[in-house]
Specification:
Blueprint: H1 4-11, H2 15-23, H3 30-43, H4 49-56, E1 61-66, H5 72-87, E2 91-96, H6 101-113, E3 118-121, H7 128-135, E4 141-144, E5 155-158, H8 160-173, E6 179-183, H9 189-204, E7 214-216, H10 221-233, E8 240-243, H11 246-258, E9 268-270, E10 287-289, H12 292-306, E11 318-319, E12 322-324
Parallel strand pairs: 1-2, 1-3, 3-4, 4-5, 5-11, 6-7, 6-8, 8-9
Antiparallel strand pairs: 10-12
Helix pairs in contact: 1-2, 1-3, 5-12, 8-9, 10-11
């Protein structure tokens, strides 16, 4: 296997010059750069990443911790983060904490032990105090979808209360007053915020919240089915249902059809996240656009700014969700 010394000898330049070309750092004339690249190609030289890491004190890898590896939401987010970092010459290490405090902490320790230059953390269960203490260490952290007031400049968050509000308001504006709601797990902050927005919209329209028409799901399609079965079994009339994500909305729509209800003629449905499959359901699902891809991109840019010194990057810490109306909502 060829070595950097052989590249240096063949190109007729110093080891430092070869290093500058490989790391794209420092001033090197185009002619010298071409000589080094030609030597690398001729010898088939492959840099030893571990040696580079020791020399630069950088691994050029970023750790990402998310709750789950399944589902369209996290797929879009990871794709966005990975592309932005890959375009900057960085690589990612991905692990899942499954919304469990012990597992999330274990994953963070794993990423730190993997010599990641920075961490992007989408966590639900570790306490804020833990994240604050972690932020004092040498490895920069960026927190996704979880607001820690003491670390506000390191948080990339979606205004979920506003998202829940505009989802319900859209149905109210279409004449619906008897509304059901399928939430995510009540202990998750984003679930709580979305439900709070739902209740705020009802209050604004002078309507009482019927707690019996609020069913709790898990953000998975199967739980949307179970929640809809439960709501329909209550024999309490409702003309529309707000779902805290699109997967549960898809499950709810299927159950409604099996009970002989037409969407949206008999019941309107609105989801949350606006993932890709919403456009291909029948009818096409109205949803709340979370700007998932943009949030992932900004998280990656925060890493490039805080860990790699790219100070010219603009960072937006808070995102407002948007209403996307399609065929699953109809006026009363």
């Amino acid at each position: 296997m060829a070595t950097i010394y052989e590249v240096s000898k063949l190109a007729g330049v110093s080891l430092a010059t070869v290093s500058r070309v490989m790391n794209d750092s420092g001033k090197v004339t185009p002619k010298t750069r071409d000589k080094v690249l030609a030597a690398i190609a001729e010898l088939g030289y492959r840099p030893n990443s571990m040696a580079q890491s020791l020399a630069s004190r950088r691994s050029n890898s970023v750790g990402i911790l998310i709750p789950e590896l399944h589902g369209p939401f996290f797929g879009v987010m990871l794709s966005s983060v990975e592309k932005e970092l890959r375009d900057a010459g960085k690589r990612v290490i991905i692990t899942a904490g499954h919304s469990d405090e012990a597992k999330e902490k274990d994953c963070i320790e794993f990423l730190l032990g993997s010599s990641c230059d920075a961490l992007i953390l989408h966590v639900y269960s570790v306490p804020h105090e833990y994240l604050i203490e972690l932020s004092k260490g040498p490895v920069p952290i960026i927190i996704l979808n979880n607001y820690v007031p003491e670390l506000s400049d390191k948080c990339i968050v979606l205004d979920n209360e506003h998202g829940g509000y505009i989802a319900t308001k859209a149905l109210l504006e279409h004449g619906h007053e008897e509304l059901a709601y399928i939430s995510g797990p009540s202990w998750k902050t984003d679930s709580f915020k979305r439900l709070s927005g739902h209740k705020r919209a009802l209050k604004e329209y002078g309507l009482e919240v019927n707690e019996n028409l609020i069913a709790e799901g898990t953000f998975e399609e199967a739980s949307g089915r179970l929640a809809m079965e439960h709501l329909l079994s209550l024999d309490i009339p409702f003309t529309a249902v707000v779902c805290a994500n699109d997967e549960m909305a898809a499950g709810a729509m299927d159950v409604a059809r099996k009970h002989g209800l037409r969407v949206p003629d008999d019941i309107s449905v609105i989801g949350y996240d606006n993932v890709s499959f919403t456009r291909y359901l029948h009818p096409k699902l109205s949803s709340i656009g979370c700007r998932i891809s943009e949030m992932g991109q900004v998280a990656a840019r925060c890493v490039l700014k805080n860990a790699y010194g790219q100070t010219d990057l603009e960072i937006q810490n808070t995102f407002k969700p948007r209403l996307v109306l399609r065929d699953s909502v109809k006026s009363r």
